[in-house]
């Protein structure tokens, strides 16, 4: 179980690192756009991303 957790954390760090390596200016643009959104919209975006991530993990667990 702990091994799977470390795998997941490692994969997230690799993917996030790749975004900054491959498209740093796109990240800056995205952060500026997010900064302009109202706080409630940012919270809703975060909640939707979290729910989507949980749904993906649930689907993976159900398949395996």
User: How large is the radius of gyration?
Assistant: 15 Å
Cα(first) to Cα(last) distance is 14 Å
Structural class: mainly alpha
Written as H for each helix and E for each strand, in order along the chain, the element string is: HHH
Number of helices: 3
Shape: flat
The tally of beta strands, per DSSP, is 0
Question: Uncertain segments of ≥5 residues (pLDDT<50)?
Answer: none
Biggest sheet details: none
Question: How would you classify the quaternary structure?
Answer: single chain
Helical content class:
over 70%
Please indicate the count of domains. 1
Strand content: under 5%
Average residue pLDDT: 92
Q: What would you note in describing this structure?
A:
The structure is a single chain. This protein has helices spanning 2-22, 24-36, 39-63. The chain has one domain. The protein contains 3 helices and no strands. By secondary structure, it is an all-alpha fold. Helix content is 92%, strand content 0%. The longest helix has 25 residues, at 39-63.
Entry summary:
The protein has 64 residues and is mainly alpha-helical. The protein has helices at residues 2-22, 24-36, 39-63.
List the keywords.
single chain; 64 residues; mainly alpha; flat
Secondary structure: elements and pairs:
Elements: H1 2-22, H2 24-36, H3 39-63
């Amino acid at each position: 179980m702990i091994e799977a957790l470390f795998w997941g954390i490692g994969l997230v760090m690799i993917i996030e690192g790749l975004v900054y390596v491959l498209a740093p200016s796109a990240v800056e643009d995205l952060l500026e756009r997010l900064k302009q959104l109202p706080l409630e919209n940012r919270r809703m975006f975060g909640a939707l991303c979290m729910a989507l991530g949980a749904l993906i993990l649930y689907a993976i667990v159900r398949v395996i």
